[in-house]
């Protein structure tokens, strides 16, 4: 076995735990130590020893080497001692390769040798996909939606990139508290209750060199979902279950749009089916509305009127 980038302490890493009980032990080889520290800082993850959760392992691909036939050939033995030698499945993105295996919950992310700020942020964006996908397996969904808090409850504001989620989030007044404005992760626990976590706005890092951080482990019970539309006057319109399920599905697809091209047609069909099934269950459990927004109205008052 080749040992290219041994980690300083294979038990050391960062802990990520979700409201549905799922967790990850995020670790990286020494060549990615500063990158992993930046990722952990953005997501406000705390350093920890081995926490008993599946490992999300980031390792740098060695310059000049070909594509790995199996991902653990170049890992420190203390990391891969409990990982199978063969049978790994890979998704190849330009900046990162994500390896998974049917027999183990651990995921390995191979990061290319090319360096650069934009590439590093893109790898972070893609590197959280395993977190989304694992949550989705238990009924959750990542949504292209901002998250705001009111009275201890989470409200999602979903829209495509051109509608104005970020502007909408900035317009809220106290006691409303915006938590994120681009991506949120909805998880479902074993009692079929939905909680929601804020996730970073990666585009702010790419375009604005943002220094903002997000506590992705913070979570709230999901109270309602609002789908934004631009309008002359503020209005809230209740949605039926079928319409809500379709809109939720579309919002999840917007998160995964970078991912579709790297999957087989069979995997795409399976992912789309799972997203739609989860969307239908979410629509049954959480009220959904269309929120028609004017430029200067007090739209939050319309939201407050329909909340419990």
Give the SSE string.
EEHEEHEEEHHEEEHEEEHEEHHEH
Main β sheet profile: 9 strands, mixed
Mean pLDDT: 88
Q: Which class of secondary structure composition applies to the elements?
A: alpha+beta
Percent of residues in helices = 25-40%
Q: Estimate the strand proportion.
A: 25-35%
CATH domain class name of the largest domain? Alpha Beta
**N-end to C-end Cα span:** 59 Å
Number of strands: 16
The shape is globular
Count of folded domains: 2
Q: Note poorly predicted spans.
A: 1-9
Rounded Rg: 20 Å
Number of helices: 9
In CATH, the architecture of the largest domain is 3-Layer(aba) Sandwich
- CATH domain topology of the largest domain: Rossmann fold
Account of the 3D structure:
By secondary structure, the protein is of the alpha+beta class. The chain has two domains: 13-127, no CATH class; 141-306, Rossmann fold (3-Layer(aba) Sandwich), CATH 3.40.50. The protein has nine helices and 16 strands. The strands form two sheets. Strands 8, 9, 10, 11, 12, 13, 14, 15 and 16 form a nine-stranded mixed beta sheet that branches. α7 runs antiparallel to α8. The longest helix is centred in the last third of the chain and has 21 residues, at 265-285. The chain is globular. The chain starts with 12 loop residues before the first strand and ends with a helix.
